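So, can you check this one?
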Amino acid sequence: MSVKGSCHCGATQFEVETAPTELTDCNCSFCSKRGNLVAYYQPSSFKLLTSRDRVSTYQWGDYMGSHHHCAICGCGTYSQFPDFSSGEADYDNPRVSINVRLLNDFDLTPLPVVHLNGRDDW
């Protein structure tokens, strides 16, 4: 069953094919300031439902990842990165991480949270 989410003002809306079963809390400098919890998906399981021009993108450093946020209200909505589950960047297997706090009518409290040490591991 698909689950929809949106930013605060509703200008940026998205959908994932299935509800998340696990959350990730990263403590890197960007994620800790952004304050979101994320769930990871294959790009084919993610769909942006609104016009791409409603979305702004932030990149830094080596530009391997893209963090997207609503151009109107500023809520961080989703990010795109290569898969790092092996410890190395796998550009052939990209992933989309969504801000689970933006899912509509979704209770995230019972889900397990993986704590990622992005501050020291990257």
About this structure: Strands lie at 3-6, 13-16, 23-26, 38-41, 46-48, 55-58, 66-70, 76-83, 90-99, 113-116. The first strand starts at residue 3 and ends at 6. The chain has one domain: 3-121.
